[in-house]
Amino acid sequence: MSYTPKTEEEINKIALGILSGTCFGSWNEEVAENSFNIIRLVLTQELIETWKTMNIAHFYEFVDKAGPMSVNGYPSFMSFSLIDQPDWGRVISKVEALEGAMKPAVVT
After folding, report:
1. Distance CA 18, CA 27 (A)
2. Tally: H helices and E strands in the chain
3. Which value, to the nearest 10 degrees, does the dihedral of the CA atoms of residues 55, 74, 102, 16 take?
4. What 3-state DSSP class applies to 20?
5. Section 43-50 average pLDDT
6. pLDDT per residue over 17-34, tens digit each?
7. Would the pLDDT of 106 be above 80?
8. E-only strand ranges, 6-91
9. Are the C-beta atoms of residues 89 and 14 closer than 8 Å to each other?
10. Residues 96 and 19: beta-carbon distance below 8 Å
11. What's the pLDDT score for residue 6?
12. CB 36: neighbour CB atoms within 10 A?
């Protein structure tokens, strides 16, 4: 298993998804517990160690990939993608830039 760094397009899509509420991930513990039951099925100590070695920061998915059922009001995913620490830093920077761009200008 190896990690392929995200393209700028993928980083933008994730950041926009976070801001628009269409990208769910483990950065929100409540979402992780309710939306990603698939993780419980596949997560082993070996996989945890592999993810640590790969410097994985989070798992995530887009709402259009959710199944037809929800859990406690959250979408339910049977698939997920991974993002490593460096790419997660890029996402955070993009989210912050987009949030800044969305703030109304102050006119004096």
Report:
1. 10
2. 5, 5
3. 50
4. helix
5. 91
6. 999 999 999 999 999 888
7. no
8. 23-25, 56-62, 70-71, 74-75, 81-84
9. no
10. no
11. 98
12. 26
